[in-house]
Amino acid sequence: MPSWTLLGQSALSGVFIGALYGLLGLGLTLCWGLLRQINLAHFALVFLGAYLTYQLSAAGVDPLLTLAAIAPAFFVFGVLLHWLLARFKVSPLNTLLVTFGFMVMIESLIQWIWSADFRRLESHYAGIKWKVGALFVPLPELLTLAIAVGIALCIWAILRFSDLGRAMRAAAEDAPIAAAFGVNEKLLALALSGFCAALAAVPGPASRSATRSRRRRSTPGSASCSRGDDRRPRQSARAAGRGIVIGVSEALTMAVTAPAWAPLVSFSLLIGALLLRPEKF
Fold first, then answer.
1. What angle do CA 142, 144, 150 make, to 5 degrees?
2. Inter-residue contact 18 to 80 (CB < 8 Å)
3. CA distance linking residue 74 with residue 72, whole number of Å
4. How far apart are CA 73 and CA 207, in angstroms?
5. With the CA atoms of 12, 17, 21 and 23 taken in that order, what torsion angle do they form, in degrees rounded to the nearest 10?
6. Count of C-beta atoms within a 10 Å radius of residue 256
7. pLDDT for 14-36, tens place per residue?
8. How far is CA 214 from the centre of its chain?
9. Neighbour-count burial for 219-252, b at 16+ CB within 10 Å, e otherwise
């Protein structure tokens, strides 16, 4: 049995990695919940954002400041992607095939430019950490947690309380009726698709390294689908929460048993949640 200090540090690390999982799934959650599109290209955009962050950081730009250039570019990509899907009236099921094709192309571009070599993202605050009792709290991971929680809460508040959020919820529930009341559903869909793509740029600065990997992980939030009007604003907060649950379960499993058991535990939690509470996804 590992020490309590090791378990505590593992749980803390799980919270931090779970926040990163939440960031990965946040854009997918909004895209599926409000646009009914399964955008597999989101994963490739996350990897591309990480590599672009690495490249700009190597040129002397602070990792967090790289978002000022990467996020707008991803926003434009998201708008163009939704315009393409809407122009040819691609069904929700066929979006899987189309976005899978974009994912393959983006990943091939990444491998062609940066190869398959390991690349580490460095910054002047990468090594800063504080000791709280017996536990160590690294600054980069703490920033990741703060960014994930902050973005999730902001999106929840906008969807729940603002006129823009109400318009988006109305368009997601019944687009023709929303249009009859003056909601520009097409413009909102373009803006939302761009915003979801821009969210894919955020995990780049939050990650400590950029690697070419064939193993992809999706959080429970990436597969969530809330049908009720009052439930939909809580999707953003749930995406971050589910990511943290998965991260903590994996970290504790690796501390107590072995790393090979971590996927078994995390996916068992996901399957159990889908079987017992499918209305929450």
1. 100
2. no
3. 5
4. 19
5. 90
6. 14
7. 888 888 888 888 898 898 888 88
8. 18
9. bbbbbbebeeeebbbbbbbbbbbbbbbbbbbbbb
SS3 call for 136: strand
Residue 133's H or E segment, with its range, is none
Q: What is the CATH classification number for the domain harbouring 231?
A: 1.10.3470
| Phi, psi for 19 (deg, rounded to 5) | -65, -35
Whether 65 contacts 205, CB under 8 Å: no
Q: What was the pLDDT predicted at 1?
A: 66
**Of 27, 23, 42, nearest to 149 (Cα)?**
23
Distance between CA atoms of 49 and 103, rounded to whole angstroms? Answer: 13
Distance in angstroms between the alpha carbons of the first and the last residue of the chain: 35
Instruction: Name the pTM for this structure.
Output: 0.79
Alpha-carbon span 162 to 63, nearest angstrom = 31
- The structure tokens listed for 167 are 């318009």
Number of domains making up the chain? 1
Question: Please, what sign has the CA dihedral across residues 258, 261, 263, 266?
Answer: negative
Which segments of the chain are extended strands (E)?
Answer: 119-120, 129-132, 135-138, 209-210
Number of helices and strands (H, E) in the chain? 11, 4
Share of the chain above pLDDT 70, in %: 85
- List the domain range (segments joined by +) for residue 208: 4-280
Q: What is the DSSP annotation of 64-127?
A: GGGHHHHHHHHHHHHHHHHHHHHHTT--TTHHHHHHHHHHHHHHHHHHHHHTT--EE---TTTT
Is pLDDT of 189 > 90?
A: yes
